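Input structure tokens:
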């Protein structure tokens, strides 16, 4: 089983510039490969394999004047970008054939430089963890990491991410035993009724208040968005205003995520069986209460409860108590 561990990164000015260059190269390789596959399909030519794309979009491209700057970055993230493209195509084919559960996947799309969230993935031969608590990335250097906990094992890969607020993160993939952590047995069971007045009402009478994360910062967000709309497009002041808005949204997302993790973990540890009602969240999110429903993030809460919860007809076991 694979787990992800995310930590905050603090690159210096030179490293931020090098990471920006890397993100751009990863994006260009993805777009070049995707354009080649689309052109081949349109011309009725055979599907281009990942190995051929690597030879054309990376190895051969470095020798051309138009793409010679690909030499300035590590080739590993560029190769991983092509592997991600292959996986995106595989997900689409599996979805069409009915082999993949969930909503139908679409074809891969081009990446835009206007997208404020950029990422690049390194495998074991392109990164290492220093004894001084830093993360070394090939052709980037040693970056300061804010470690909030220890890694249970050596990571197999790390994805470096920059979000819309300009924050940098390292997302490590760890291979762990499928058994995972064994929780103490709990004989209790609980039913959960989700709502907006109270976030959740449990069958034992416990009521969990709805924090309303977005509503709390609505005034501040409105003020910052008005300031952003007054700034001239393309100016440095507009970019500063955009980052201020993005940081407020990031704070909302962080607070929501922390609440969902803490609440779901507490419920799982105290109960053997969790029964939760089936809600058509996607439908409710398009109604007149869409803003409040999206702010509540019921779908993410249900996902975090995961295999510990059941729904459907089993709701009747606890529904009367709620």
């Amino acid at each position: 089983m694979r787990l992800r561990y995310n930590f905050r990164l603090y690159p210096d000015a030179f490293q931020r510039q090098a990471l920006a260059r890397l993100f751009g190269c990863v994006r260009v390789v993805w777009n070049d490969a995707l354009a080649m596959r689309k052109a081949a399909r349109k011309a009725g030519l055979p599907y281009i394999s990942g190995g051929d794309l690597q030879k054309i979009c990376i190895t051969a491209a470095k020798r051309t004047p138009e793409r010679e700057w690909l030499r300035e970055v590590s080739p590993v993230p560029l190769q991983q970008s092509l592997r991600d493209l292959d996986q995106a195509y595989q997900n689409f084919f599996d979805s069409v054939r009915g082999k993949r559960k969930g909503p139908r996947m679409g074809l891969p799309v081009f990446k835009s430089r206007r997208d404020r969230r950029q990422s690049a993935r390194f495998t074991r031969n392109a990164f290492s963890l220093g004894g001084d608590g830093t993360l070394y990335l090939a052709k980037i250097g040693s970056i300061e990491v804010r470690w909030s906990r220890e890694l249970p094992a050596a990571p197999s890969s790390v994805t470096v991410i920059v979000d819309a607020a300009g924050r940098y993160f390292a997302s490590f993939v760890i291979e762990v035993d499928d058994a995972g952590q064994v929780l103490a047995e709990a004989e209790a069971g609980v039913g959960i009724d989700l709502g907006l007045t109270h976030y959740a009402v449990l069958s034992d009478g416990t009521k969990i208040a709805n924090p309303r994360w977005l509503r709390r910062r609505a005034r501040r967000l409105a003020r910052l968005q008005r300031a952003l709309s007054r700034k001239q497009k393309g100016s440095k002041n507009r970019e500063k205003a955009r980052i201020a808005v993005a940081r407020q949204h990031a704070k909302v997302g962080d607070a929501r995520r922390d609440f969902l993790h803490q609440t779901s973990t507490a419920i799982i540890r105290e109960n053997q069986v969790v029964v939760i009602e089936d809600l058509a969240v996607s439908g409710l999110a398009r109604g007149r209460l869409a803003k409040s429903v999206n702010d509540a993030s019921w779908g993410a809460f249900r996902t975090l409860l995961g295999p510990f919860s059941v729904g459907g007809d089993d709701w009747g076991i606890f529904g009367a108590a709620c």
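The first helix runs from residue 13 to 42. The radius of gyration is 23 Å.
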